Amino acid sequence: MRILTVTFYRYYNGVRGIEPQFYYLYRVPEQMGFQVDFFDYQTSLAIGIDQMRRQFLNLLRGGRYDAVFIATHQDEFDSATLTEARRHSVVFGWNSDDEWRWDDYSSRYVNDYSFMVTNSPAIMERHRAAHPNLLHAQWACTGFWDGTTTKKELDFTFVGQVYGARAGQIHELSAKAALQAFGRGTRRFAPEKPGSPWKARLAARLRRILGRLDPESVDDTISFEEVNSLWNRSRISFTPLDSSRGGVRQIKSRVFDMGLSGTLMLAHRSPHLDSYYEPDKEYVPFESMEECLDKARFYLRNEGARRQISTAYAKRTRSEHLWEHRIRRVLTEAGLLRSNI
Asked: What pLDDT, on the 0 to 100 scale, is given for residue 209?
């Protein structure tokens, strides 16, 4: 099978690391034995959106592709481009954040794809009757970073970007449970290093000022490879699931990304999460920050219980929640692969 994967290469178009979707939709199907080509539409946008669309269609016309995987983002591919693309291949739009993006974005384009893939069970249930080309595939784990045997040098961590309610949550956990935070916007939570107190206070103040004026000016971004390395070294991973927009709880990619890290996932209670992992056996749920603190402290004191849950978490991930499972299922439902059943 020949696949054309269409997404970013650089994470948020930056220089620090590779976009996770590149691993999900290019590296994984390549490892599955498919012939996969890649089109970086974000880089091509630098020469103009019309030229980018022409480049995409020209590549598609000459490629004899069985499938096209497009990681949806904004309005880079219009209805006319997608309609033409469907004349040459089976085109999949791989969505994320449909919990808050469906009404404003995904619903506008759902009929322009051969199949639109949503990771929201609620959206799938609500709209499948009206859109028979809607498929469901949840986030998953690449399987590329197995940390189940890695020494756990970090007790309690958060790895990711700080936004919305996360700032207050990380501040409280840092103060009361020695949470260590890594990623964009986390410098303000770093403990002061030994040395001149006034210099440390001044540096912290400058970071706060810069962060308020221009979040891009304080670049704490870490690569996806570094993210996985930190998860692999963490005993417990704080896993907030508040959405960046829309004020909802959602299942985020980190729930599955770190599934083979050997960490214990301490996660917000979120709709549908318990259908993927069993609470208190494969992950540890919390609702309030007080509950989160209590459970973090308990599992930091009880390594045997922590390891039992993290081991079950990894076992479930390996058996059911790898990107290979998701991709094979989507291609099978689209009639491009034979079912093993």
From this structure: 44
